[in-house]
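Memo to structure team: turn this sequence into structure tokens by end of day. - J.P.
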Amino acid sequence: MLHRMVSRSVGVFAAAALGLGLAACEDNTTGTPLPAPPPSTAVSVNVVGPAPTTANPGQVVAPQVFFEVVYPDGSPAVGQVITFNLNLGGLLFQQRDTVDAAGLVSPGAWIFGDRPVQRLIATPVAGNTGFIDVAAE
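Reply from structure team:
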């Protein structure tokens, strides 16, 4: 008896679910067109020159590194906050910067660590991370 009760309930639920699923599908080819998706807020971070390629361990890396931050359409991502970090040792003078009207940010100066290669990484809230590798002299 219990088996029959369960079987009937399952059948009723399946039919109801199927009916709801079919009613929810509509053809929109003759209706209003779907709105365009909102513009992306993901950004791309790129190194702009002059970028240092070598530095002495324990000394300030020069020249100062600048990153360009742009939206997918190429316009500057003004006001975006970019976080900076180093992968191996070293000391950053500034760990965050806000993109200016020209689309640029910089960590300022940093002291090169005692590794053969050090990577400075610029990370946006959403989007592609930028980085530069600097080798010890």
